[in-house]
């Protein structure tokens, strides 16, 4: 946070010099101009955070749906028989639905086409902290996601959100695609990491390559990743993803469905198979220790982020918002977090929400609920695990009462009507398959799919492209 504040100060100083030297502003005019600039910046940041909240609510509703065959348009997808080793023990469950642009008020109202949306859940044979570290490590990307060949950050909006560019390779007969995607992450009370995304535009990037040739656009319309503590085994992790994508307006509906029918039987299963395989071999550069406390109690230092179809977003040094922990007064999101009432309610008994609250309390995902003074959280809370705390830190800890003379203690006591958070409920046992991990080895691959068949491989030459088209 100190680095961010210093960066902002330098930017403001530069604006002051520019306004005085080039524009001839006096001190009063300068103050009014700078206050407007800062207000617009904060307003933009808060608007993006609202979008992140809306995406999470949208995805949570899909996760909570009961996936009955044919109900509400959802269809169960099974792994291709040619790649059955990707789901040998049946732990990966995948469903597909075709739907219109899901971006709410930001959707393309002129586009009536339907695009594929998948919902996938699985179990990873590694503890939550290790899975989060592995996925947040940019060097891990090539191991599990061959559908993103290039990527970079376009703009950091807040310490927990950014706009990213990504490029996919040629897949079947679909030429390489460019994606611009807004990405946002936060941490729930039980330790669940939530990473959401939505297709967007940006003034500094117009999809034009260096040679002046227009690149092909694709859109990761909306998506969410829930990386959760396993309800029964602390050495395992539950993962849920929702991903809605448009491969590009130059692809006809027929060709879009043809490509999806081939890829959906392989790619989701391969993604999680490889994550499960490589995370077990991963050695953290931090020797397996994650710093969970921060000088800013409202933000986490836990590494976050991952790569999915069309985008890659990483926060190796943390910055994600922590549910239930008020932000300091000097944080740009303080007022927004405590004034927002547009909560995302979750039905009692639904899958993901059970990790966060007890059955005696209404389950809501709304942020900003302070904890009761003096009430400790469950042992699996993201910052209550003593094994991962910095013993020398003086930062406030979630769920632990502060001394009476501490200014934060007075702040907590001023909220007698706040809603307390509780934990302890687990995911339904039928939501996950927790069998033994796959013991089938996988050779290193350079192409997105196996080379032996069109279903399990992409030949990148024009001959294969023509054959696929035919």
SSE topology sketch:
Blueprint: H1 2-21, H2 27-64, E1 75-77, E2 93-99, E3 115-124, H3 128-136, H4 141-144, E4 150-158, E5 161-168, E6 177-187, E7 193-199, E8 219-229, E9 237-246, H5 253-263, H6 267-279, E10 304-308, E11 311-315, E12 321-322, H7 334-339, H8 407-413, H9 462-469
Parallel strand pairs: 6-12
Antiparallel strand pairs: 1-2, 2-3, 3-9, 4-5, 5-6, 6-7, 7-8, 8-9, 10-11
Verbal overview:
This protein has 470 residues and is α+β, with helices and mostly antiparallel strands. It has nine helices and twelve strands. It has helices spanning 2-21, 27-64, 128-136, 141-144, 253-263, 267-279, 334-339, 407-413, 462-469, and strands at 75-77, 93-99, 115-124, 150-158, 161-168, 177-187, 193-199, 219-229, 237-246, 304-308, 311-315, 321-322. The protein is globular, with a radius of gyration of 23 Å. The protein starts with a helix and ends with a helix. Mean pLDDT is 73; it is low at 288-294, 332-343 and 345-470.
Q: Tags for this entry?
A:
two-stranded antiparallel ribbon; 19% strand; 25% helix; 10-stranded mixed beta sheet; globular; alpha+beta; 470 residues; disordered C terminus
Distance N to C terminus: 56 Å
What is the averaged pLDDT score? Answer: 73
Q: Which range best describes the helical content: under 10%, 10-25%, 25-40%, 40-55%, 55-70% or over 70%?
A: 10-25%
Going by helix content, strand content and strand pairing, the class is alpha+beta
Radius of gyration, rounded?
Answer: 23 Å
How many helical elements?
A: 9
- Please give the largest β-sheet: 10 strands, mixed
Shape annotation: globular
- Fraction of residues in β-strands: 15-25%
User: Poorly predicted ranges (pLDDT <50, ≥5 residues)?
Assistant: 288-294, 332-343, 345-470
- What pattern of helices and strands is seen along the backbone? HHEEEHHEEEEEEHHEEEHHH
Number of strands: 12
């Amino acid at each position: 946070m100190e680095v961010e504040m210093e960066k902002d100060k330098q930017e403001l100083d530069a604006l002051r010099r520019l306004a005085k030297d080039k524009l001839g502003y006096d001190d009063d005019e300068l103050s009014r101009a700078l206050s407007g600039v800062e207000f617009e910046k904060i307003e933009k940041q808060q608007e993006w955070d609202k979008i992140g909240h809306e995406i999470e609510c949208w995805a949570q509703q899909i996760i909570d749906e009961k996936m009955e065959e044919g109900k509400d348009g959802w269809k169960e997808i099974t792994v291709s028989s040619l790649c059955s080793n990707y789901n040998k023990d049946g732990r990966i469950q995948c469903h597909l639905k075709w739907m219109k642009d899901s971006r709410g008020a930001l959707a393309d109202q002129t586009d009536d086409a339907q695009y594929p949306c998948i919902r996938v859940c699985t179990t990873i044979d590694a503890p939550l902290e290790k899975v989060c570290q592995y996925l947040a490590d940019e060097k891990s990307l090539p191991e599990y996601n061959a559908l993103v060949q290039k990527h970079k950050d376009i703009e950091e909006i807040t310490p927990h959100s950014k706009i990213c560019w990504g490029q996919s390779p040629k897949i079947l007969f679909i030429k390489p695609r460019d994606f611009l995607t807004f990405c946002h992450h936060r941490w729930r009370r039980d330790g669940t990491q939530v990473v959401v995304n939505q297709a967007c535009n940006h003034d500094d990037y117009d999809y034009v390559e260096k040679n002046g040739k227009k690149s092909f656009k694709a859109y990761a319309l909306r998506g969410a990743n829930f990386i959760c503590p396993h309800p029964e085994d602390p050495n395992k992790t539950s993962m849920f993803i929702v991903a809605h994508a448009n491969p590009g307006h130059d692809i006809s509906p027929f060709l879009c469905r043809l490509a999806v029918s081939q890829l959906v039987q392989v790619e989701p299963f391969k993604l999680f198979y490889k994550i499960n395989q490589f995370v077990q071999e991963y050695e953290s550069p931090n020797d397996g220790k994650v710093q969970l406390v921060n000088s800013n109690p409202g933000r986490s230092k836990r590494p976050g982020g991952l790569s999915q179809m069309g985008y890659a977003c990483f926060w190796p040094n943390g910055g994600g918002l922590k549910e239930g922990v008020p932000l300091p007064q000097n944080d740009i999101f303080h007022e927004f977090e405590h004034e927002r009432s547009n909560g995302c309610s979750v039905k009692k008994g639904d899958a993901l929400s059970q990790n966060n609250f007890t059955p005696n309390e209404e389950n809501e995902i709304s942020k900003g609920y302070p904890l009761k003074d003096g009430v400790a959280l469950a042992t699996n809370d993201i910052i209550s695990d003593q094994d991962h705390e910095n013993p020398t830190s003086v930062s406030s800890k979630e769920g632990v009462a502060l001394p009476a003379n501490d200014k934060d203690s007075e702040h907590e006591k001023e909220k007698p009507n706040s809603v307390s958070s509780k934990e302890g409920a687990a995911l339904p046992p039928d939501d996950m398959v927790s069998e033994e991990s796959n013991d089938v080895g996988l050779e290193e691959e350079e192409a997105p799919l196996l080379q032996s068949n069109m279903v399990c491989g992409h030949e990148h030459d024009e001959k294969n492209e023509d054959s696929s088209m035919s």
